[in-house]
């Protein structure tokens, strides 16, 4: 009797799990295709709960598993918009990965706040650095994951624009959320450990985002 009841409970849980996976994937595909964000908090909650199973399922069906990360980043960008836009430029931090630097970058690494761009002009970070200074935003270049956390603690931002591959953006934006910092994510357009690319225009637009006050 007990075994029979236990069996039924297991089957109910298995069906509920499968339905939840299918529903979340359906919502992710819908958001990805239409760019319409529906049930954002529900989708983010289920994704954070079932992140690995969802990615594995997509891989099994030969679908790019970063779909989950892409949708999460899109949702968080939308949800964070108002809180981010309400912060002043001085409260914001622009966090860049070291992989977008030139291979011949002469910048030095500080153990406290990452790589210090010298604006040598060998890569587009020079322009970003100049624009950041003009806007009053602090810009950091992180050599890696643990360093990013250190920079975050050092700079104590009220808002952050992060650049990374989708999986790292997913993780970074989740951590920022847990710290109560509204983040805007900009994905890399080509991946790798070196010579990666990104839409610089998008970074600048995100950095400049502000609430337009009606007259
Ligand atoms: S512009 Fe800055 S980040 Fe780019 S190569 Fe020169 S020093 Fe390095």
Task: Walk me through the topology.
Blueprint lengths: L1 H33 L5 H10 L1 H10 L5 H20 L6 E6 L10 E3 L3 E3 L8 H11 L2 E5 L2 H11 L3 E6 L1 H13 L4 E8 L6 E2 L1 H9 L7
Parallel strand pairs: 1-4, 1-5, 5-6
Antiparallel strand pairs: 2-3, 6-7
Bound molecules: iron/sulfur cluster.
**Percent of sequence in beta strands:** 15-25%
Helicity range: 40-55%
Largest sheet: 5 strands, mixed
Distance between the termini: 72 Å
Radius of gyration: 20 Å
CATH-scheme architecture of the largest domain: 3-Layer(aba) Sandwich
* Shape, principal axes of CA atoms: elongated
Ranges where pLDDT stays below 50 over 5 or more residues in a row are none
Q: How many domains, as an integer?
A: 2
What is the CATH C level class of the largest domain, in words?
Alpha Beta
Strand order within the widest sheet?
Answer: 4-1-5-6-7
Query: Strand tally, please?
Result: 7
Number of helices: 8
Bound molecules: iron/sulfur cluster
H and E string: HHHHEEEHEHEHEEH
CATH-defined fold name of the largest domain: Rossmann fold
In short:
The mean pLDDT is 92.
Can you walk me through this structure?
It contains 8 helices and 7 strands; from the N terminus they run ααααβββαβαβαββα. The protein has 215 residues and is of the alpha/beta class. The chain folds into 2 domains: 2-63, no CATH class; 80-208, 3-Layer(aba) Sandwich (Rossmann fold), CATH 3.40.50. The longest helix is centred in the N-terminal third of the chain and has 33 residues, at 2-34. It is elongated. The termini are far apart. Iron/sulfur cluster binds next to helix 5.
């Amino acid at each position: 009797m007990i075994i029979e009841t236990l069996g039924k409970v297991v089957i109910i849980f298995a069906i509920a799990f499968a339905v939840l996976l299918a529903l979340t994937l359906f919502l992710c595909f819908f958001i990805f295709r239409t760019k319409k964000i529906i049930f954002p908090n529900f989708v983010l909650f289920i994704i954070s709960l079932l992140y690995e199973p969802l990615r594995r399922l997509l891989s099994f069906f030969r679908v790019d598993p970063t779909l989950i990360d892409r949708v999460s980043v899109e949702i968080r960008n939308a949800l964070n918009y108002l809180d981010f836009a309400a912060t002043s430029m001085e409260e914001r931090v622009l966090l860049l990965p070291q992989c977008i630097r030139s291979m011949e970058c002469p910048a030095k690494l500080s153990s406290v706040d990452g790589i210090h761009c010298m604006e040598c002009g060998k890569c587009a970070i020079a322009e970003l650095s100049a624009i950041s200074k003009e806007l009053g935003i602090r810009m950091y270049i992180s050599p890696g994951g643990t360093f990013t956390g250190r920079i975050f603690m050092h700079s104590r931002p009220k808002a952050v624009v992060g650049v990374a591959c989708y999986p790292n953006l997913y993780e970074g934006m989740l951590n920022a959320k847990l710290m109560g910092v509204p983040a805007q994510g900009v994905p890399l357009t080509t991946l790798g450990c070196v010579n990666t690319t990104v839409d610089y225009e998008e970074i600048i637009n995100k950095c400049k985002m502000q609430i337009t006050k009606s007259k």
